[in-house]
Write a structure and sequence with these properties.
By secondary structure, the chain is mostly helical. It has one domain. It is built from 4 helices and no strands. Helix 3 runs antiparallel to helix 4. The longest helix is centred in the middle third of the chain and has 14 residues. The termini are far apart. 19% of the residues are buried.
Length: 69
Amino acid sequence: MRKFKHSSPHTVRFHLIRGRVLLSLGQYDQAIDDFRSALRLDWRHEQAAYWLNKATRAIPHADGTRSLS
């Protein structure tokens, strides 16, 4: 984690790691923002797209169900 502490916040890796941490904490909107930031830096980054999709699907709906799409 020490190496990550000194990472530039302007790298795809930074946003992916922070996004995954936020997702694991249930902070879906913030995680989605990080994955989108990663994709803005590299729009073809497959892991960023994968985690953005995963975070978007993880958001609970108001009626207690999750989207299947």
